[in-house]
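Query structure, 320 tokens:
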């Protein structure tokens, strides 16, 4: 169980607070696994992941169900709960669909997850395909519906992620990914297609950590409204996060997020109007007894419409 409480103070804007409980469960029986993750908060209640896995051999596993789309590093490493990440917020490009994310962060389908080692090095690969986001009437993305999935309403997604570990038993890694998402045409004649590629890295050295990613996203929109329709145009987004362990229980971090070429993207003018194009964040995380943590984060956030300064306080835990 990953409970958390957060309070966000926004200068000159309405404040926000949230109570969230993230329940994570993983059970193994011989060569079979089941993974469940559900979130209940003051804003939503949803099953985020439900996966059934089969160990094909010692290095390859096949998953069936709803899982995190293996886009980049953040979405394959961290949960919906904040305890296992040092920052309170996720990079905006990795936000989940329900939080204003512009990319398909969940897939309902099959995931092939494997690795092979050589000379104490390791290469991991993940290949996922299935149904992605469901489109609302305004073209925005919602998480895939696991209760009544409909190919006519969901994006079709295929993603490949390759990561290289210079030392197989350490966390430092470099990776590349490529994904194709084609949306089913909506009743309002919105059709958003995305081709996504990029690279990421996570480097850990004693008390220092540096992680980041670069995304290249080609958005194509078809609509009966000529002002919304747009042929494929490139969008670039990158973030880099620096962390330093100041004390055995105290970590300081900072993150910079930048987006390029968003000004000529009708997807932001008409669909994802609140997407965070640029953000600078600094924060502190203090580890408490009994697998608890307190964190403080200050952010300067920029969207197409607003510039916002905010302060967020977060308590999180991992029990039992």
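Result returned for the query:
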């Amino acid at each position: 169980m990953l409970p958390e409480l957060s309070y966000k103070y926004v200068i000159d804007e309405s404040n926000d607070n949230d109570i969230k409980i993230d329940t994570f469960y993983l059970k193994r029986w011989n060569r079979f696994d089941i993974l469940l993750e559900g979130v209940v908060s003051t804003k939503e209640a949803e099953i985020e992941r439900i996966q059934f896995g089969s160990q094909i051999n010692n290095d390859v596993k096949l998953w069936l169900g709803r899982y995190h789309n293996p886009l980049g590093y953040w979405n394959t490493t961290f949960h919906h709960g904040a305890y296992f990440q040092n920052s309170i917020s996720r990079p905006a490009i990795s936000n989940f669909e329900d939080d204003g994310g512009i990319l398909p962060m969940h897939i309902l389908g099959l995931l092939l997850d494997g690795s092979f080692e050589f000379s104490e090095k390791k290469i991991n690969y993940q290949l996922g395909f299935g149904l992605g986001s469901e489109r609302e009437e305004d073209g925005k993305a919602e998480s895939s519906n696991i209760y009544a999935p409909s190919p006519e309403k969901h994006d079709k997604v295929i993603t490949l992620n390759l990561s290289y570990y210079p030392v197989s038993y350490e966390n430092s890694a470099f990776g590349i990914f490529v994904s194709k998402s084609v949306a089913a045409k909506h009743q309002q004649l919105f059709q958003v297609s995305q081709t996504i590629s990029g690279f990421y890295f996570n480097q850990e050295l004693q008390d220092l950590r540096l992680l980041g990613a670069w995304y290249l996203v080609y958005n194509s929109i078809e609509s009966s409204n000529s002002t919304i329709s747009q042929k494929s145009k490139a969008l670039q987004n990158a973030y880099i996060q620096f962390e330093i362990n100041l004390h055995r229980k105290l970590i300081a971090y900072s993150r910079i997020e930048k987006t390029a070429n968003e000004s000529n993207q009708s997807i932001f003018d008409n669909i994802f109007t609140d997407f965070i194009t640029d953000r600078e964040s600094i924060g502190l995380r203090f580890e408490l007894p009994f697998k608890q943590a307190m964190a403080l984060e200050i952010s300067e956030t920029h969207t197409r419409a607003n510039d916002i300064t905010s302060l967020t306080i977060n308590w999180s835990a991992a029990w039992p």
